[in-house]
Amino acid sequence: MKLKSLERLAFQDLAWEEYELIILASGFEGRSAHILQFVPDSVLSRVVVLGFNENLKKLSRTENDRIFSGRSLSPHVFSSAAEYELLLKRSLFAATRTSRKARPTRVLVDYSVMTRAWYGYMLTWLRYSEGTNQADADFVYAHGDYEGDFEPLHIKEVLAIPGFEGACAGARSTAAVYGLGFDRYAMLALNEQIEPDSLVCFVAQESPNDVRTERALVENADIIRMSNVAPLRVPLSNLEEIYRILFEAMSTIEPDSEIVAVPMGPKPHVLGTLLVAQAIPRVTCLHAKGYRHEPVQVSASGEVSAWRLSYR
Amino acid sequence: MNSSTRDRHSWPVEPRPTRRVAGIAAYQHLPQAFATDNAKQMALEDTVRYFVPPVEFEALFAPKNHILLGSRGSGKTTWVRMLAHDHVSLAAKDLSTRTDYARDALARNLIGIYVPASAAFTGDLRNKPWQSESESEQYFVWRLNLQSCSALTHIIDTCIDQYIAPGEIRAQIQTDICRALSKVWTDGNESYTTFDGLRLALSNLEVASQAALRRARTSATAVPVATDHFHADLFFPLRHAIRVMRVHLQIPLSAVWLLCLDEVEYLTESHHRILNTQLRSASGDLVFKIATMPFAHHTLATNLADPVREGHDFEYVYVDREPIDSRGNQGEGDFLRFARRIFIQRMKNRADGLSKLTLSTLLGPSPLLDDKHWDTLSETEAFMSLLRKHANAATIARAERLRDSRKFGSEIVRKLHGALLLREAITGAHGNTKVRIYSGESLVVRCCDGNARRLMRVVNSLIQRLEFDKDGRAILPIDPATQNDVLETLGRETLTRTQSEPPYGELTARYLDSIGKFMRWTFLSSTRRLGTDQTTSVTIVEQDGQDAQRFIKQAIQLSLMIPAKSVPVKTPDYTCVGEFHLSFLFAPHYHLLPRRNRSARLSRVLAHASGHAQATSELQHSLLDAG
User: Fold this and answer.
1) Cis peptide leading into B12, omega within 30 of 0?
2) How far is A284 from chain B (nearest CA, A)?
3) What pTM was computed for the model?
4) Quick one: three-class SS letters along B17-34?
């Protein structure tokens, strides 16, 4: 299947009964259980909760697990990629079997705190699985308030996100596309490893006077200086616009270059980058795997974005 | 533009005249002259034009296996790229003696193929934990087969230029080669007549293979993996393609193909074992030039019974340049000569009209490093005055004793004048006073630690800070305070960024900071007075443990610690012990003298750091208790 359309949904109007599968996640961020409160009891049997196997006692993790447990849900904690892929694959195939033939299989994914490998696998399944020929994946995102500053990310290794490896054999140059967050030094360290020939940066800008935009620009002044073009301003909650801007930026890069995309900013930008990579085969999405000693608390701001990804 | 120069030249002791050279028009290209600091980012023409071949480079044209070891930014990529036939062919057209090596290589039928291993390439090899070891190895072989054939397509053009027979039609030869290769590469399904077409064929194969893998990952049942021409023994497709070229171009059988693999440090141990197997069993017509970091030739093992042996199956070549000797004597060192040559090369090619501008004119003399004469009575008295202020009693007594002998210059002044000037400058700086001591050509070059990329970055940063007078002419040399600021910032930022470097960046940054602070304490502490030796290095012994090994190996790879010449930097299982120098890059940040001198045990340095941390913590607690 291919991505056919992106459609904004009103979160408060979601028809929960229509989902064959609802995938949530429990982590240390306070917003982990935010979407759960809207999930009616009647569909709890269709909910799968993915759980991080690290930082099990930090910040709100215990409380989040307790909230999920209060709704008779327990997070699946994985020790390997093979385990979560198997669970997701089984759940997704089961969803296609239970869906009514007349309409697409419907899945809701709360990716607010998920690791990109998890929702990356779901996107790969939607794009390449032969289990169904029509599916709607509703990706919901609980916007957050960051209650502190990140310490620099200590990178352990840099890997392609599975399923998002680009075709690079014919290329003799590398074009990098960086989604800038607030981690100046991790971005610089990544750039040292990627050593791109050309560079395009983008930052989140939700409104004309978005203070987070200014901060991202200041934090990443060195990287921006290395790029010969001004950083793109990309909205945070409009996935269709994120996709349009990033697709345009990547599809116009000279054809001899491989494209290395590293989204280090907010999750909707990561999702948008992954979707573009599915459409442009020479895009590789890289992920810096690392750790921070003290995670930062992110509580739900109350705003929720919901977008329907229709695959046919 | 700021034309103010009122506080210039208050340091060093003797004032320097401010020079103004060339009009503003001549400077319009200057900011771009050093903007590119990485060979990977350069166009082929620029790589060839700016390349200053070191002596060891020409040895790579020998028909044998080499493993190039160099820290980040040392120039490995430039070296292996410059071996590629398209680069050699272009270099050969420049008839200066600088490129004699290129004409010689062409005459000897040495044909280089440059194979980059980009982050996308390596990131794809290590992100499939579900693969078995055998599947993972097969995938690597498949990808490298594809990658090496793709690399070959970039040199067919210059090979045709070199080997086309008189009377043959060039376009026909190209068409024949492309058709022959595309047919075999696509199992007879496609026929292309251009190099772009060949690369498109490879790209299509790659996309199809990736889609098949993704379908297998998301399928409910096991899916058999389709195979293509590149699912073969490693380099079989490349060897076949070489044979096709040989036949069409009548390349002599004596020709040797140099397969240049770049950045293999990002590959795994099992990948290196596969490459080693090729080194062990390589035939004479295909040899390997493999670029990696120190300690990042991950293993000597092969898939055969015997491991590869240095001196027998391959030789290591060290790319890093030792900037100065172990006691700090640089003078006209290799790297300073290299810096001057590359500056002139870039000026000539990028900023026409400034060809008379030299690095020395741009940066001026160094108050800290350049030789000082203490011939007159007043100069000697000024020196002794500083000595009495900062040196310990034994040194002062020795200086007094030797004052009227020749040894005064060699054993006292030479060893101490930089240290005294530095200590005076640092301890005398108060409030908003700008430190200007870290400036001048020899010091700036020394703070680059023999690292070509660091040199480009520093010179670029300095050029961006160039000031102009009201007539639009550059004020030279660049303000020493500006030079000091650029160098200090570079050291500080490098240290902070190191925290994020994979895989042990946090540990490495912490140890570097401990070492820098320890050295600053030994040099600048008000409770300590100077002798003729300063601590500028650390000694690591086996008992220092695993963290010390992780630290020193990564710091050497990033060119943040420099091993003494006696320390080998080969395979990773080697326990790295001996003497290591803190990079001069950090000298301005920690206010250290950029000289090589005495070393301290790493364990002592770390104990000092933890003791200092504990003392600070206790002080804070006692203040809180008192409050």
Assistant:
1) yes
2) 6
3) 0.90
4) CCEEECCHHHHCCHHHHC
